[in-house]
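name: query_chain
kind: protein
chains: 1
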Amino acid sequence: MLKKALIILFTVFNFSVMAEVVTQQQLDKYVNNWSALMPAGAYDFVPKKVDYKLLSNPDFQRKLDEAGTKLNNQIEGEVIELAGFMVPIDTKSSDVRKFLLVPEAGQCVHVPPPPLNQTLLVDTSEFPTERRDLYEPIIVSGKITVGSQSFDIADSGYSLTNVTIKPLKFSDVEPAND
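structure:
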C-alpha cells in the first residue's frame, strides 16, 4: 500500500533539483523500515487475501485498531531512515518546528489518521525546516524514541530527533512539455 502510494505520487509531481532520486532498492528499504515500526506478530491475524466482508467485520476492525497501538520497543535509540509525508503541528511563518511523519500522503488531514505505530513526531525545533506540501514526499533520518504522544490531529507512537530531511523523487528525467 505504501509503495503504491509513493509510486503514484512520485510520478505525478516534479520535485526540486536538490531532491534525492530514489532507487527501487532504497524504496524497498523505506518500506521495510516502516514495517520495522510494527512489532513482530502484531498483524499475524491478517490473512493474505482480504475482502470487503472481512474489512467490514467489527471484530476484524477491532483487532486492526488494537494491533495499530502496539509499538516496537526493540528499535529504541536506533537511527532510522524513512520516506514519508510531513503533517506540520508546530509552525512559525514558513518554518516547521515539529511535524508528524506519516507513510501516505494526506493522512492525519483526512479521517482516519494512521495507526500509532505508523506515526512519528519529528522534532526540528532546534533547526526548523521549511514547510512542505502535504503531498511532497521527504526522506527523514534520525534517532528514534519509542513512546506515544497525543496531538489534536493524531497521536504518534515514536519520536525522531537529530534529524536530517531531504526531498525525494523517482527520476532525474524531466517530463516532456507537450
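note: The chain has one domain: 2-41+51-169.
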